[in-house]
């Protein structure tokens, strides 16, 4: 809960003091210091180790984009059990809170975007929406609004409940042990290089790429679908976050499984979901019609394409 001073000052998030979580500050400082050191190891590492680190990045990214985000937060498509198990494991590799908590906070973010109930309210500035929100206790509005959401679909999914119950052990295994052991065991990479490159550096980059969706994609770019909201189309974020940078579209049509207009758009997450559909592991992909998109652009867009 917020300190008495914050309660006395009401809901003005720009002046209300926050209780700093020093543990998170210290851990993130150590993590980013380790990531910076990791760059020095790249010239000494085996090429396979770098390829493996990138593969781990793609897997953990899908655990967030195709899993926690598009499947469990927005229910934009349905996935069969084998795919849900894979996405839950990939989500543990991403280490960004368990699926239940991630989806709950993301639903609050959409329903109360850019208010005190938004966990990473971009109105508080780039630093806060990028990483600063992790350095302070959640605003009381985030907690109160989150409790009022219907999360029954998450509680009815045994995969979500299993991952939540064993989250810590699954994170240790998926985020740190497997990425480190594979290069050491299969092609003789040193444990030191494996740990810092495939675990620490990969994890830090994946975190910052995800955070850019909350920060840069809410501040920089055009708004062809709805100029009245903050989220923007950001090509840089799209490339890094494998398709999550079409953010003005996504906040306008959050139910769309592609989170963007289809066509020649760069959206690896959509390609993955389409592949799973072709394999029979995905059903009921929700999509915005061309007529709806055109009408919305004409009514509320900023005139850009």
Automatic annotation (TrEMBL):
GO cellular component terms, semicolon-separated: endoplasmic reticulum membrane
Domain Fatty acid desaturase: 52-254
InterPro entries: Acyl-CoA_DS, FA_desaturase_dom, FADS-1_CS
Membrane topology qualifier: Multi-pass membrane protein
Any one biological process term the GO annotation gives: unsaturated fatty acid biosynthetic process
CDD domains the UniProt entry points to: Delta9-FADS-like
Domain of life from the UniProt record: Eukaryota
MF (Gene Ontology): iron ion binding; stearoyl-CoA 9-desaturase activity
Alphabetical UniProt keywords: Fatty acid biosynthesis, Fatty acid metabolism, Iron, Lipid biosynthesis, Lipid metabolism, Membrane, Metal-binding, Oxidoreductase, Transmembrane, Transmembrane helix
TM region(s), chain numbering: 20-39, 51-72, 171-188, 194-213
Domain comment, as recorded: The histidine box domains are involved in binding the catalytic metal ions.
Family statement: Belongs to the fatty acid desaturase type 1 family.
PANTHER family assigned: ACYL-COA DESATURASE, STEAROYL-COA DESATURASE 5
Name of this chain's protein: Stearoyl-CoA desaturase 5
Source organism of the structure: Pseudonaja textilis (Eastern brown snake)
Chain's gene name: SCD5
């Amino acid at each position: 809960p917020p300190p008495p001073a914050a309660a006395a000052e009401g809901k003005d998030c720009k002046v209300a003091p926050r209780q700093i979580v020093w543990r998170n500050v210290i851990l993130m400082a150590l993590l980013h210091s380790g990531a910076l050191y990791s760059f020095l190891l790249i010239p000494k590492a085996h090429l396979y180790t770098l390829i493996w680190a990138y593969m781990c990045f793609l897997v953990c990214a899908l655990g967030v984009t195709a899993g926690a985000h598009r499947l469990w937060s927005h229910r934009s498509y349905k996935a069969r059990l084998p795919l849900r198990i894979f996405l839950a494991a990939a989500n543990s590799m991403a280490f960004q809170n368990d699926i239940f908590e991630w989806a709950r906070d993301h639903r609050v973010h959409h329903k109360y975007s850019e208010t005190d109930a938004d966990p990473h309210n971009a109105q508080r500035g780039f630093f806060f929406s990028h990483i600063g929100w992790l350095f302070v206790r959640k605003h009381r509005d985030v907690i109160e609004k989150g409790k009022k959401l219907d999360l029954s679909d998450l509680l009815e999914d045994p995969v979500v409940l299993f991952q939540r119950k064993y989250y810590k052990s699954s994170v240790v295994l998926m985020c740190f042990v497997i990425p480190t052991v594979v290069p050491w065991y299969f092609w003789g990479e040193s444990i030191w290089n494996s740990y810092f490159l495939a675990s620490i550096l990969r994890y830090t980059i994946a975190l910052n790429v995800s955070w850019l969706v909350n920060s840069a994609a809410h501040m920089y770019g055009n708004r062809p679908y709805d100029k009245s909201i903050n989220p923007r189309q950001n090509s840089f974020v799209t490339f890094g976050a494998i398709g999550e940078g079409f953010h003005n579209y996504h906040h306008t049509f959050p139910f769309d499984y592609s989170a963007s207009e289809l066509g020649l758009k760069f959206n690896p997450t959509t390609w993955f979901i389409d592949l799973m559909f072709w394999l029979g592991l995905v059903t009921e992909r929700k999509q915005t019609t061309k007529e709806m998109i055109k009408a919305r652009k004409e009514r509320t867009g900023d005139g850009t394409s």
